[in-house]
Specification:
Helices cover about 20% and strands about 20% of the residues. The chain contains five helices and 13 strands.
Length: about 375
């Protein structure tokens, strides 16, 4: 698994129509560019499981599977809560990811891809209804929303919370005016394209760095027992100290490997490696095979991609400790990429935070 190719994701500015079109769908921020226009996630599915407020679209990754026709078009949609209090240590219930896929021949997109230098007809700004299916979308977040403004009936919302936000932000002034609202939603994350390139492997350097780190960490800690016979209390204290020292050493090794690995490309915001292994930031809270539930189809879920802490720099969030935060977020998906009739299938997220010592070192992000 660990030998699987790793593809890195970087942020890049792009034409607005490219970011809105599901035919060029890898991006961060803005509103989701839904792949299938049917079977969208329900409103309860898009709620944070902690505060029960609607989550906000964070990113989507276009990840078709070569040689599998049912996954000719395949996108993973990532949502997260914007309530800082929900981001307690290693808590994943404030995030959700959905998988959606279509065969090459489908009712929504042409068999052959359109030219990349011209916008498709369904990439209109301020889109409130999905073509073909007629699904209405929330003006604030771009998720399914049938609750219309009772006054103008021009815009719809996913619920009262986003309707209230929009009313206070701008709709109180715009309601009743001709045309669709033009004031952008302040709830959304900044919108940028997500471009990818293969990671250049430097395995030899990583192994050498780990070896050097082991020597450095081991050299500074003495676990030799006293020649004198210690009391029971002293023995327990020394035993606890040894365990703590070993844990700190292992945690430091993992973190140093993380820093070494990303150093050549410090601006990476995504690491994609379907069937590979995540690059953890800590030795703590690493999932076992039993921690990742199998898909409802019976297939095992495997790692597909992870969100890096560098992305937080581009999200216009508050300082560390007073905003959304993570060390890294790993996404596990159905290894068979099973078909469920155009539905958006929930997959599994594993959020890992920095240790207290690491968090201090990364506050300068």
């Amino acid at each position: 698994m660990s030998s699987a190719e790793v593809v890195l994701g970087f942020l890049e500015d792009a034409e607005p129509w490219r970011l809105r079109s599901p035919q060029f769908p890898s991006k961060v921020g803005g509103k989701p560019a839904w792949l299938s226009r049917r079977g969208l996630p329900s409103l309860p599915e898009l709620e944070c499981e902690i505060c029960r407020l609607p989550m906000v679209f964070l990113l989507q990754v276009y990840a078709p599977i070569s040689g599998q026709d049912r996954s000719f078009h395949r996108t993973l949609f990532f949502f997260c809560c914007k309530t800082p209090e929900c981001y307690t240590r290693n808590e994943s219930r404030c995030m959700k990811v959905f998988r959606n896929q279509l065969p090459r021949r489908n009712e929504f997109y042409p068999y052959d891809p359109p030219p990349e230098d011209e916008p498709p007809c369904d990439a209109e700004e301020g889109q409130s209804v999905l073509p073909v299916s007629g699904v209405k979308l929330c003006w604030v977040c771009g998720c399914p929303g049938n609750k219309a403004c009772a006054r103008c009936h021009t815009v719809t919302y996913c619920g009262k919370h986003h309707q209230t936000l929009h009313w206070k932000q701008s709709h109180k002034k715009e309601c009743g005016s001709q045309g669709f609202p033009v004031t952008p939603s302040l709830l959304l994350f900044p919108e940028t394209e997500l471009v990818t390139e293969p990671e250049e492997e430097e395995e030899k350097d990583v192994k050498e760095a780990e070896g050097e780190q082991e020597v450095e960490d081991g050299g500074g800690i003495s676990t030799q027992r006293s020649v004198d016979c210690p009391s029971l209390a002293e023995s327990l204290a020394e035993s606890d100290l040894e365990e703590m020292a070993m844990h700190e050493t292992e945690d430091s090794k993992v973190f140093q490997r993380f820093k070494k690995k990303i150093a050549p490309e410090p601006h990476q915001v995504i690491r994609y490696s379907r069937g590979g292994s995540p690059l953890w930031v800590s030795s703590q809270h690493v999932p076992s095979d039993e921690d990742i539930p199998s898909c409802i189809c019976g297939a095992k879920r495997t790692f597909e991609f992870q969100v890096m802490p560098q992305l937080l720099n581009n999200l216009s969030v508050d300082s560390t400790g007073a905003s959304i935060d993570w060390g890294t977020v790993a996404v596990y998906t159905c290894s068979a990429s099973c078909e469920r009739s155009d539905q958006y299938c929930p997959e599994v997220i594993w959020k890992q935070d920095f240790s207290s010592e690491q968090h201090t070192q990364t506050e300068q992000r």
